[in-house]
Amino acid sequence: MQIQVVEVGPRDGLQNEKELLSTSDKIRLIEMLAEAGLQRVEASSFVNPRWIPQLADAGEVCKSLPRDSRVTYSALVPNLKGLERARECGLTEVAVFMSASETHNLKNINKSMAETFPILREVAREALALGMRVRGYVSTVFGCPYEGHVPVENSRRVTEELVSMGVYEISIGDTIGVATPLQVHEVFATLVKDVTTERLAGHFHDTRGTGLANVTAALDEGIRVFDSSIGGLGGCPYAPGASGNISTEDLVYMLHGMGYETRIDLEKLTEAGAYIQKLLGRVLPSKVLQASLAQKQEQPKQT
């Protein structure tokens, strides 16, 4: 069975890194991800650079992406201005985002949930008119750093709104990594009553070590698309204490071991992980990456 992996490292991963990478380094990372077989890559974000300075070069990055008909590149856009910048770069897909909790939405985009809907609707309408596809993110579905528990009805409302806008896929996010498999079962079992499984994706963080367990729970509920980040990069600037997304290497290793197909070359994937780890100068959370690097170090040199 085929599972789609959406690589969000170049955007969701790098946006929370203190180290500012050069544009050429980002492009090379994306090239390596494409070479590893990833067919969906979120390249950057057209959010105001004052909010996310790590992605201030979004335009340069997106204009220089390796053109490969097998790979779909996307970028996050908060408004019509961001959409226009994405279109100018030749992107065919954009992503819109909002939170399932009122306080996080205010902290994240400085607007209430009610104020956000018309903006997203305008962006989606214009993008669709331009022939672009629109993906949606719903943050803090499983818990909010400010409000704690988030009622599933909040996520149902946001999901239904996004579907009505013409969003083709909605990524359900555990922004601060508090979800457990039981909660994942309950949330997705509720959401699939309103939206088909084909239109839902899982976006898990590994803050408390339950990221991959949550993937397996979502798989049981029929979810077949998952976001992940190379090396386990990431977090959320507006979610204090949140660690990275689940690692792409760890996710692919687990999926392959469970008999799922991803069309991703794990060896090339770990090379991409090693590349970004070296650039950042710190050990990344990916367990498969660290095991791979340790194994290579232990191999005797050929004479």
From TrEMBL:
<dbReference type="InterPro" id="IPR013785">
    <property type="entry name" value="Aldolase_TIM"/>
</dbReference>
<keyword id="KW-0456">Lyase</keyword>
<feature type="domain" description="Pyruvate carboxyltransferase">
    <location>
        <begin position="3"/>
        <end position="270"/>
    </location>
</feature>
<keyword id="KW-0479">Metal-binding</keyword>
<comment type="similarity">
    <text>Belongs to the HMG-CoA lyase family.</text>
</comment>
<dbReference type="InterPro" id="IPR043594">
    <property type="entry name" value="HMGL"/>
</dbReference>
<dbReference type="Pfam" id="PF00682">
    <property type="entry name" value="HMGL-like"/>
</dbReference>
<dbReference type="GO" id="GO:0016829">
    <property type="term" value="F:lyase activity"/>
</dbReference>
<dbReference type="InterPro" id="IPR000891">
    <property type="entry name" value="PYR_CT"/>
</dbReference>
<protein>
    <submittedName>
        <fullName>Hydroxymethylglutaryl-CoA lyase</fullName>
    </submittedName>
</protein>
